[in-house]
C-alpha cells in the first residue's frame, strides 16, 4: 500500500488556510481591543506604555554612551589581552 501524499498535503494546506482565515476573522486588532477597554484600564495601559518607552529611551542612551566615537583609532579599542605578548 502507498500513502496518499497528495490528499494528505491538500488536507493539511486546507486546514491551515481555514485556521488562518478563521483567526483573522475573529481576533481583534490592537486598536479595536484598546477601544473596547474600560477607561480605567486604558489609563493603566497608557501609563505602562509611557513607562516602557522611558525605559527603552534610557537603554538607548546607555548604548549610545558606550558606543565609541567614529574618529577613535581602532587599535585603541582592542582589549589589552588582544595585544601580543612583549618579548624581553
UniProtKB/TrEMBL annotation:
Coiled coil spans: none
Gene Ontology cellular-component annotations: mitochondrial inner membrane
Localization annotation: Mitochondrion inner membrane
Keywords: Chaperone, Membrane, Mitochondrion, Mitochondrion inner membrane, Transmembrane, Transmembrane helix
Family note: Belongs to the CBP4 family.
Job of this protein: Essential for the assembly of ubiquinol-cytochrome c reductase. It has a direct effect on the correct occurrence of the Rieske protein, core 4, core 5 and apocytochrome b.
Identification of the protein by name: Ubiquinol-cytochrome-c reductase complex assembly factor 3
Organism expressing this protein natively: Marasmius oreades (fairy-ring Marasmius)
Amino acid at each position: 500500500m502507498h500513502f496518499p501524499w497528495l490528499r494528505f498535503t491538500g488536507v493539511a494546506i486546507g486546514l491551515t488556510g481555514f485556521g488562518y482565515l478563521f483567526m483573522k476573522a475573529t481576533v481583534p486588532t490592537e486598536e479595536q481591543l484598546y477601544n473596547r477597554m474600560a477607561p480605567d484600564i486604558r489609563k493603566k495601559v497608557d501609563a505602562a506604555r509611557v513607562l516602557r518607552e522611558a525605559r527603552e529611551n534610557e537603554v538607548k542612551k546607555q548604548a549610545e554612551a558606550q558606543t565609541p566615537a567614529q574618529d577613535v583609532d581602532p587599535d585603541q579599542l582592542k582589549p589589552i589581552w588582544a595585544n601580543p605578548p612583549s618579548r624581553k
